[in-house]
Every structure is written in structure tokens, then in C-alpha cells.
Amino acid sequence: MGAYYDEIEIEDMAWDEEKRVYHYPCPCGDRFEISRKQLANYEDIATCPSCSLIIRVVYDPLDFEDEPPDDEDSGKGEEETGEEEDDSDEDHFEDALEKLTIEDEPPQVVAVAA
């Protein structure tokens, strides 16, 4: 990865229970964010959603090894998460080529005004 804006220890970051992320102030006015799931997957890059800056989070991955996935520990009722869990499964892979269809019709030309 390229250059980091800074290296921040996890202890210096704050936990946001509502968004379920650790955060740290960004110079742009927003905040860098990283989830427990990312930390458990040995990801140490926190990103700012408003600008291109990134920070490296210094932490012990073993501290997050037994963390439950964020979606299971979010406090939502089973009715709300039942369908969303299937949609948000990162292990699910869908090959776009399986859904690709090729038609015998020639492509249509669309005029665009400049």
C-alpha cells in the first residue's frame, strides 16, 4: 500500500456502538473508520469516507480473533436480520458470466446531444 497519513494505535480510537466501527478524527472534518470484522481479518487500514486519506491501525490481531461477525452482534431482532444476512454474506460469490446473455440483435445506436 502507499503512504499512510498516520499510524494510530487502536487504544487511541473510539468505538461507535451505533455504526459498529472504531473511528479517529480526520483532518478533513470527517473520521477514519474500521470495523471489528476488518480487524479480525487482519486488515489494518482505516479509511475516511470523505477524502482519500488512510491510516494504519496498530493493534494485536489476536485480540479480535474470537470476535463475532458485526451483523450477528448488532443487537437487531431476528426479523430484521433474517433476509439481510443472506445478502451480506461475503463468502457468497456470483459469477457475472453465468448471467451473461448474448442476443442476436445488432446493437442499437443512440444519439447523444453534446
The pLDDT mean sits at: 76
Sheet with the most strands, sense and barrel status: 3 strands, mixed
The chain-level structural class is alpha+beta
Q: Which ranges are low-confidence, i.e. pLDDT below 50, for 5 or more consecutive residues?
A: 70-86
Report the helical percentage: 10-25%
> What proportion of the residues form beta strands (DSSP E)?
15-25%
Number of strands: 6
Distance N terminus to C terminus? 40 Å
Q: How are the secondary structure elements laid out?
A:
Blueprint: E1 6-9, E2 14-16, E3 21-25, E4 31-35, H1 36-40, E5 45-47, E6 54-58, H2 78-87
Parallel strand pairs: 1-6
Antiparallel strand pairs: 2-3, 3-4, 5-6
What would you note in describing this structure?
- The protein is of the alpha+beta class.
- Helices cover 13% and strands 22% of the residues.
- The protein has 2 helices and 6 strands, in the order E-E-E-E-H-E-E-H.
- The chain has helices at 36-40, 78-87; strands at 6-9, 14-16, 21-25, 31-35, 45-47, 54-58.
- The strands form 2 sheets. The protein has a 3-stranded mixed sheet with strand order 1-6-5, with no helix packed on it. Strands 2-3-4 form a 3-stranded antiparallel sheet.
- Strand 5 and strand 6 form a beta hairpin.
- 11% of the residues are buried.
- Mean pLDDT is 76; it is low at 70-86.
